[in-house]
Amino acid sequence: MSVKIKPLLAGNWKMNGLRTSQAEFHKMKAGLTDTLADSANIMICPPATLIPALADIAAGSAILVGGQDCHGEKSGAHTGDISAEMLKDAGATAVIVGHSERRTDHGEGDGVVNAKAQAAWRAGLVAIVCVGETEAERKAGQAVSIVQGQLNNSVPDGATAENTVIAYEPVWAIGTGLTPTAQDVEEMHKAMRDNLASRFSDAGAAMRLLYGGSVKPANAAELMAVSNVNGALVGGASLKAEDFLGILDAYS
Ligand SMILES: O=C[C@H](O)COP(=O)(O)O
């Protein structure tokens, strides 16, 4: 079944951004024409410290604000952690879970990611679940099977096209300037679509599948044109309004 899916262009600021970065966000908001906003949903996931300020600036515009991670519990003795409910309270509408930098830096496995996705839903947030293979796994010809395993175990039962977005991010393409070929992206996204449609039927067929990893204005049109690519999760190029809006041009 082929379904018309409105793309999502999400920017992940990672551990970048001070209060002065609000100026860049103002520029994004100012540059977002109605045509661009009609062509895709737009989201910025800043550091948690900036969510309230950016949510205030975004109010009344088409830009959504998301978090970059959450704890699985609602509250409690978890020093330094932030719950999905806190993100929601701060103005977020979504949260990234299972980013490869969390999986690597904090040893998060699929079980933890699955619990975080459920926490996102509990708080009324969209879970953006990240998956992706390492360079060694791709070279060993295991990319598709690794990602299928991550999908099976990180995406909880009950996922719908409304509460879940999947982001395929090959680890070796993040921040490196390297990207897979359009053919490799197509193969992976088709495998993910088949997996999700088989498990969640219509919901899986309509779920947004983002590509992430060195997306820039120069390569966005080619990557976003690939079948079953329903948007992008952008790191470095989301920090500057000009670059981020340049990527959005790929949809107009
Ligand atoms: O979450 C975003 C990704 O990790 C991509 O980062 P990048 O666009 O800097 O390669």
From TrEMBL:
GO molecular function, one term: triose-phosphate isomerase activity
Record carries keyword Cytoplasm: yes
Active site: H99, E169
Keyword Transcription regulation: no
InterPro entries the record matches: Aldolase_TIM (IPR013785), TIM_sf (IPR035990), TrioseP_Isoase_bac/euk (IPR022896), Triosephosphate_isomerase (IPR000652), Triosephosphate_isomerase_AS (IPR020861)
Metabolic or biological pathway: Carbohydrate biosynthesis; gluconeogenesis; Carbohydrate metabolism; erythritol degradation; Carbohydrate degradation; glycolysis; D-glyceraldehyde 3-phosphate from glycerone phosphate: step 1/1
Subcellular location: Cytoplasm
Domain of life of the organism encoding this protein: Bacteria
EC numbers: 5.3.1.1
Binding site for substrate: N12, W13, K14, G175, S214, G235, G236
An annotated GO BP: glycerol catabolic process
Keywords attached to this entry: Cytoplasm, Gluconeogenesis, Glycolysis, Isomerase
Catalyzed reactions per annotation: D-glyceraldehyde 3-phosphate = dihydroxyacetone phosphate; L-erythrulose 1-phosphate = D-erythrulose 4-phosphate
UniProt GO cellular component terms: cytosol
Role summary: Involved in the gluconeogenesis. Catalyzes stereospecifically the conversion of dihydroxyacetone phosphate (DHAP) to D-glyceraldehyde-3-phosphate (G3P).
Subunit structure, interactors included: Homodimer.
Alphabetical list of PANTHER family matching this protein: TRIOSEPHOSPHATE ISOMERASE
Family that this chain belongs to: Belongs to the triosephosphate isomerase family.
Protein known as: Triosephosphate isomerase
Taxonomic path: Bacteria, Pseudomonadati, Pseudomonadota, Alphaproteobacteria, Hyphomicrobiales
